[in-house]
Amino acid sequence: MLAAYVSDAEVRLAVGVIGVSFVLYAWFGRVPAEARRPSAASGVIWGSLSGFTSTLAQAGAPPFQIHMLPQRLDKLTLVGTNMIFFAAVNWMKIVPYFALGGFTSQNLLTSATLLPLAIVTNFLGIWLVRRTPTELFYKIAYVLMFAISVELTRSGLTTILWP
User: Fold this and answer.
1) Structural domain tally of the chain?
2) Which of 25, 26, 42, 68 lies in the 20 to 30 Å Cα band around 111?
């Protein structure tokens, strides 16, 4: 229902700014080096925001990572949780996408064409995660979140300012 009132550009901009702020705070703020366990309320808030932004703008990763990265979970646990969470979110999006006309023969054909590449890159990702030391894995995760958040900010601003 909110899709009628909030543009995907506004969602991308908001998520991008939040993501950049989170990473800069993690890098330069007074964040404890040890793992911390967030509250259940934090999980509900960030999980809901992740599902919402994933549905409207395919930008659910930054809110999810804001909740998960500070926990410093084992890298395989983090990656597995990420996959399970977004698999569930994507299943929940099927009915709303149908209602919004999101499934067309063209995008289904594109998805089918890209399926073999998706399978190969998933196995490559599994291989890389298993071979990357945990400390390096977390550094890469923060750098990638920063890069994604900067791009979301740029994309949102560009679309809002020059439609």
Assistant:
1) 1
2) 68
**Type and span of the H or E element at 162:** none
Beta-carbon contacts of residue 150 (< 8 Å; ≥ 6 apart): 16, 20
In which domain, by residue range, is 137 found? Answer: 2-161
Q: How far is CA 37 from CA 41, 64, 67, 91, 137, in A?
A: 12, 14, 9, 27, 19
Distances (CA, A) of 161 to 2, 8, 123: 22, 13, 39
Q: What pTM was computed for the model? A: 0.86
> What would the pLDDT profile of 76-129 be if each residue is shown by its tens digit?
999 999 999 999 999 998 988 888 788 899 999 999 999 999 999 999 999 999
Structure tokens at 50: 């992740």
Task: List the structure tokens of 102.
Answer: 């999101």
Please report which helix (H) or strand (E) contains residue 1, including its range: none
